[in-house]
From TrEMBL:
<keyword id="KW-0812">Transmembrane</keyword>
<feature type="domain" description="FAD-binding FR-type">
    <location>
        <begin position="283"/>
        <end position="385"/>
    </location>
</feature>
<dbReference type="Pfam" id="PF08022">
    <property type="entry name" value="FAD_binding_8"/>
</dbReference>
<keyword id="KW-0408">Iron</keyword>
<dbReference type="GO" id="GO:0046872">
    <property type="term" value="F:metal ion binding"/>
</dbReference>
<dbReference type="InterPro" id="IPR013130">
    <property type="entry name" value="Fe3_Rdtase_TM_dom"/>
</dbReference>
<feature type="transmembrane region" description="Helical">
    <location>
        <begin position="165"/>
        <end position="189"/>
    </location>
</feature>
<keyword id="KW-0349">Heme</keyword>
<dbReference type="GO" id="GO:0006952">
    <property type="term" value="P:defense response"/>
</dbReference>
<dbReference type="InterPro" id="IPR000778">
    <property type="entry name" value="Cyt_b245_heavy_chain"/>
</dbReference>
<dbReference type="InterPro" id="IPR017927">
    <property type="entry name" value="FAD-bd_FR_type"/>
</dbReference>
<keyword id="KW-0479">Metal-binding</keyword>
<dbReference type="Pfam" id="PF08030">
    <property type="entry name" value="NAD_binding_6"/>
</dbReference>
<dbReference type="InterPro" id="IPR039261">
    <property type="entry name" value="FNR_nucleotide-bd"/>
</dbReference>
<feature type="transmembrane region" description="Helical">
    <location>
        <begin position="101"/>
        <end position="119"/>
    </location>
</feature>
<dbReference type="InterPro" id="IPR013112">
    <property type="entry name" value="FAD-bd_8"/>
</dbReference>
<feature type="transmembrane region" description="Helical">
    <location>
        <begin position="201"/>
        <end position="221"/>
    </location>
</feature>
């Protein structure tokens, strides 16, 4: 419980700090533009819409600075490998959650910023047409003139300039439209249903972020929002605003001077953009490194096993790589958890046929030339920490078993080599599958481990349970007929397959009773609904006393 409290407390603290900075920036810049004397005449034209446009812009700058950092995979792997505080390290596993949170804030602030500027455009037009009184009219008529020593305040320079014309004929307007359209496409294509069913759509539209950031950098170059400048002699606003007809005629009221603010967005985003550029450069270097095939196996369950070799490639358990097949698409990269162990002289992935890209790969993989694949990685995940716990619960759903294949293989090698650094004393492994044939490629590994643990007198080291979730009565009848057999009729293992879903309350209670004073690492690679359920169980079955059983939840994120 204590570890969970620390982790959740740190997550809440980071969230509060982030939200606090957002609120501070919004309030500070709202008051700056709503009360600042240099914007008094600007407010005569725009009213409160000025502050409502500029305050969200400040929040946008801050969040656009953050949005790229959680997806810099090499940076996260570098931090994961450093000696930072364990609870802080755990926050790296929530990188995509934070990325989405920042994206939601960008979307909200963009909406507020856009609506406010649409109102500004309308009020600029009305001010130029004299609808808001003589002061607004006088301010709107000021133009750039060296002879008259005047500068403009209202960017709408004629009665023929409508908001629509202004949007499509100015830098601020055009870039604003491009930024907004890019953001709409990025956000809508990121919805779960599209990302799962049409990953290619998600992948390509997400790269509109390049256009988004380019437009963002140039958006302020038009310097549309202008402030009053200091003149000699000074222009006394309180005295002069009621007599605009005397501007330039009496010493107390020289014609006010205005200038656009210096663009600031680039200063916020330049650092993260350079980091991300380095990230992509490193990915390109990896893309150019040769990859050779060691073994290709296509299993009846439409699962492709690739064993690959790449010079200088080093991995840890549970890590993942991005694969690219130029014959299918030179731009698409897809993440896959490695199923090999660090002790092996190759790395492997298991790819299930889901979506257009994987289907094409499985159909053409046997005809691909040597070097027909590109690999980027490896990158760290929560599963890397599995050996930091004496007791671990591993839960995989479907193809989500892949990181645990790597872990169990590595454990077998460590036992084989009598590795003294192995802290793990016990593992509970649960695998949930919808179809019977999904067990085929992993059952061989479990058989080897089962036999090895038995020979070493360590039957209790590995407790595994396989669950068939997509079954009918014929499966049950068949199992009942062969119930007396020593091995399971589906997997060939001594441990019989369970039908249905686990009773997690019973499983957690069993683990707690068998490990009364251990910190149990609970690792999941599976759907979000199962993640929420297991996280709640970890809290419920963790003891308040840190000397007793504590469950620590970890989930894979790509």
């Amino acid at each position: 419980m204590s570890n969970w409290i620390i982790n959740q407390g740190l997550s809440a603290f980071i969230l509060v700090v982030w939200m606090g900075i957002n609120i501070f920036l919004f309030v500070y810049y709202y008051l700056f533009y709503d009360l600042g004397p240099q914007f008094e005449y600007t407010r005569e034209l725009l009213g409160s819409a000025l502050a409502w446009a500029r305050a969200p812009a400040a929040v946008l700058n801050f969040n656009c600075m953050l949005i790229l950092l959680p997806v810099c995979r090499n940076l996260l792997s570098l931090l994961r490998g450093s000696f930072i505080y364990f609870a802080l390290l755990k926050q790296l596993d929530k990188n995509l959650t934070f990325h989405k949170l920042v994206a939601y804030m960008i979307a909200l602030m963009t909406a507020v910023h856009t609506v406010a500027h649409l109102l500004n455009a309308e009020w600029y037009t009305n001010s130029f047409q004299g609808r808001y009184g003589p002061l607004a009219s006088k301010l709107s008529m000021l133009g750039d003139s060296r002879e008259l020593n005047t500068t403009y305040l209202n960017p709408f320079r004629s009665n023929s300039t409508t908001p629509t014309i202004f949007v499509f004929t100015t830098i601020a307007g055009l870039t604003g439209v491009v930024i907004t359209l890019a953001l709409i496409l990025i956000i809508t294509s990121s919805m779960e249903v599209i990302r799962r069913s049409y990953f290619e759509v998600f992948w390509y539209t997400h790269h509109l972020f390049i256009i988004f950031f380019a437009g963002l950098v140039f958006h302020g170059a038009g310097r549309i929002v202008r402030s009053q400048q200091v003149t000699n002699p000074p222009h006394n606003n309180s005295f002069c605003k009621d007599q605009p007809e005397n501007w330039g005629k009496i010493p107390e009221c020289p014609v006010p001077q205005f200038a656009g603010g210096f663009p600031q967005t680039w200063m916020w985003v330049i650092g993260p953009m350079i980091i991300y550029l380095c990230e992509r450069l490193l990915r390109f270097i990896r893309y150019m490194q040769p990859v050779s095939y060691r073994k290709i196996v296509i299993r009846p369950s439409k699962v492709l096993e690739l064993q690959l070799v790449k010079p200088g490639f080093k991995m840890e358990v549970g890590q993942y790589v991005f694969l690219n097949c130029p014959a299918i698409s030179q731009l698409e990269w897809h993440p896959f958890t490695m199923t090999s162990a660090p002790e092996e002289d190759f790395f492997s992935v298991h790819i299930r046929s889901v979506g257009d890209w994987t289907e094409k790969l499985i159909k053409m993989v046997e005809n691909l030339p040597e070097g027909g694949m590109a690999v980027d990685g490896p990158f760290g995940t929560a599963s890397e920490d599995v050996f930091d716990y004496e007791v671990s619960m591993l839960v995989g759903a479907g193809i989500g078993v892949t990181p645990f294949a790597s872990i169990l293989k590595s454990i077998w090698y460590k036992f084989k080599d009598s590795d003294p650094k192995l802290r793990t004393k016990r593992i509970y492994f649960y695998w949930l599958c919808r179809e019977t044939y999904a067990f085929e490629w992993f059952a061989d590994l479990l058989q080897v481990l089962e036999k090895d643990m038995e020979e070493r007198g360590m039957r209790d080291f590995l407790t595994y349970k396989l669950y068939l979730t997509g079954w009918d009565q014929s499966h049950v009848n068949h199992a009942m007929v062969h119930f007396d057999k020593d091995t399971d009729i589906i997997t060939g293992l001594k441990q019989k397959t369970h039908y249905g879903r686990p009773n997690w309350d019973r499983e957690f209670e069993q683990v707690r009773q068998e490990n009364p004073s251990s910190v149990v690492g609970t690792f999941l690679c599976g759907p979000q609904a199962l993640a929420k359920d297991l996280e709640k169980k970890c809290v419920r079955y963790s003891d308040v006393d840190p000397r007793k059983t504590t469950f620590y939840f970890n989930k894979e994120n790509f």
